[in-house]
Amino acid sequence: MLKLQEVHQKFEIGTVNEKHILHGINLTVNEGDFITIIGGNGAGKSTMLNAIAGSNQITSGKIFIDNIDLTNAKEHQRAKYIGRVFQDTRMGTASDLSIEENLAIAYRRGKARGLKVGITQSERKMYKELLTSLDLGLENRLKDKTRYLSGGQRQALTLIMASFHHPKILLLDEHTAALDPKTAKNVLDLTVKIVGENKLTALMVTHNMKDALKIGNRLIMLHKGNIILDISGEEKAKLGVSDLLKMFEKASGEEINNDRMLLS
Fold this sequence. Notes:
By secondary structure, the protein is an alpha/beta fold. It has a domain at about 1-80 and about 165-264: Rossmann fold (3-Layer(aba) Sandwich), CATH 3.40.50.300. The protein has helices at about 45-55, 75-80, 100-105, 120-130, 150-160, 180-195, 210-215, 235-240, 240-250, 260-264, and strands at about 1-10, 20-30, 35-40, 60-65, 70, 80-85, 170-175, 200-205, 220-225, 225-230. Strand 9 and strand 10 (about 225-230) form a beta hairpin. The mean pLDDT is about 90.
């Protein structure tokens, strides 16, 4: 479903500020994989997701989605294959548009546009049913602008929008990090439900090692732009946080110095 071959990412090349963030990443993601991604600050987690989404053009290497070479494809050209939810709760929705208008934009993504009525009654009924399943009361607020929603409500709405058309890949970039613990758990539970029910292939960056071990079928750890751990199946299921810390120290030769990961 997704393949990264020798992906390097450099910024400000040829200047004194040149930074080499990804160091020849090789990663094969199988259809239906739900991969959690952890690593310290500057490990390259978000940079790798940006490379997959096309937000940044990689310096060298190849990126394939569903066996299609998208290495040189722009971000908007990859959008039909990719759904994404960001850490910033404001990035997934248009603040000045209503809930139903945001849903309509997501629903029409990749479809031909015409001069028909903006939102049909059948669509509105579908939106209400989808929102009812969230159990957040949003089904009765279709006309409300999303700027008036809480962070958790916006992330839940963004998840629905990102998974509307069963994207080939769903990218989740610390999408619960800006939420309070209770709301974060609710959004995480919703994420697991949406990924499972729609049989999506997903990559989720998280700083919470317990969540990384509990969720999904596979875990990878990045360190200084390299994948140093790739654990799946029964091996992953048997691990505890202390085991994961020991594996990191053995693979990297260092101790984890990320307070957010340790405090989680």
